[in-house]
Amino acid sequence: MDKKILDEASKISRRGFVTAGALGALGLAGCAPSESEGNLASTGEDAAAEPAAGEKTAWNGVADEVTRDITVKVPGKPTPDGNYYVTFNGGPLTAAEQHAQISSYDWRKNELSASQIAVDAQTVTDEEAEAILMNEPEITQDYVTSDGRTIPAVYIALRNRLLRVGQGVGCEVHDNTWDFLMQEFTEDEAAFYLKLPNFAYFTDTEAAEAEGMTVEEAGGICEELSYRGLLNRVTRQGTKYYHVLAFAHGMLEFMMDRYEEDGFVESVFGLCGADYGYQSRNQGSPMYFPIPANQEIVGDTEILPNHDWNEIIDRYDTLCVAPCQCRTFTPIRAGEGQKPGEWCDHPMETCVATGEQAQYYIENGIGRQVSKEECREILQRGVDAGMVIEVMCTAECDVICQCHGDCCAILRGFIALDGDVENLHYMSQYELQVDYDQCIKCGSCAARCPLFTIEMADDGPQIGNMCVRCGQCATVCPVGARKLFALPEEERFTMPKDMVDDYHMKALERAKRGYINDFDPAKL
């Protein structure tokens, strides 16, 4: 094993374990490559040294318990015919060079681990990444699918736009890739959407200037699209502002009232390529991050900003609650013949929106307004039910979710991949520490863990590699042997201001990693 590869990859691994490039999760992505395709090399070396014999210090961190059997994919390994793979995130080219040269790729030939991709991405500047985001190709040629359907060029261009926003939609395409867009947008609306500013709030006046329309015409279309869940809408000091949406968090959540329409869920998820799951779980920042279940389990004197759900509730006058999207669409996607909520015994009404986001939910009829008191009761109910309290990765804390490993798409994805994804390491600003001197080995923590990652052994509870530092295990520890401690400031992930900033931050990182590859029928 090349020691340099391990050293570089470990630079971004705060817990001491290197993530391998996991391809696909929870039905959001395709199958993983075979071992011969992936050119895997492995080592049995431990990345963290074992404590000396008999040594058991108090407050051992998670890293001491989970680092085993590292697997790293070898970058730049030649193919059998002697050529190097030139894929969307592998081979000898930088992400910017690949974007300029590649018209198609096979993501299953990815030869780099997620960690190595992140290391390589550091060589791409913000300016180069911004150029990739803003260099949307002009699509002039329609596409004919294998079953003979014609996809107008404007829908191909629109999907290329969505590829650039937030977590994107994945680069891989298939015959049904554009069904959702053709179902939800007329061709004129799709053309309108493509002219709207990206990563920015805009008014009807600014939309009119971009479209060459009257303010009334442009404003009417913006209103129509926003009430259909295709644009976001906020009102500030009497003026309406809009912004383009990502697939998630965005269109998927804002159209939840239509999940039970025949074929709707199939069509909306059909928008995603097979590599969407891989990309969205290896992008350097989470979409949501867990916060402590309560203040009492935090070992520091003060809880971090944006990590106290009671403080977040106090901050906003407008709050609403909506059904859990995951527990609504999962049985529909699985075809289990069950209604949402029948297959999971956790509460259904769990997604809390705040401030401007709450106002949008209420106006669009996808959430009901609640008082601060009821909101606290809803979140406390989730804590009592053993759920992970997660907040959208923004300083404005637009949405607070309540998730569990048996029903949440994000957490189930981590479980399906056995925690082998980079985002897991950016999931929390805290680390879980265990005082083994106090632990009485009662097993309460293992029974409570919503990720099912704590197992009881003769020497006490062992934490697996899927700990998201939610603190649920600490809420039931009878002796207080488990606490959450804040990471040093330099180890915490960047917190964007709001959803638009988060879209841009994620898109820049994805551009640096070579995740943005446009589809153009003219280049086939």
Structural notes for this entry:
This protein has 524 residues and is of the alpha+beta class. Among the domains are: 129-285 and 494-524, Orthogonal Bundle (Arc Repressor Mutant, subunit A), CATH 1.10.10; 287-404, no CATH class. The chain has helices at 3-10, 35-38, 63-66, 95-101, 114-121, 126-134, 153-162, 179-184, 187-194, 204-211, 215-227, 251-254, 264-270, 276-281, 309-315, 325-334, 355-363, 372-384, 409-416, 444-448, 472-476, 499-512; strands at residues 40-42, 60-61, 71-73, 143-144, 150-151, 231-236, 239-244, 288-290, 319-323, 349-354, 368-370, 388-392, 399-403, 430-434, 454-457, 460-463, 482-486. A six-stranded antiparallel β-sheet has the order 8-12-13-10-9-11. Strand 6 and strand 7 (239-244) form a beta hairpin. Helix 7 packs across helix 9 (187-194), helix 10 packs across helix 11 (215-227) and helix 15 (309-315) runs antiparallel to helix 18. The two termini are 38 Å apart. Residues 1-109 have low confidence and may be disordered.
CATH homologous superfamily of the domain at 129-285 and 494-524, by name?
Answer: Winged helix-like DNA-binding domain superfamily/Winged helix DNA-binding domain
Order of strands in the sheet with the most strands? 8-12-13-10-9-11
Helix percentage range: 25-40%
CATH architecture annotation of the domain at 129-285 and 494-524: Orthogonal Bundle
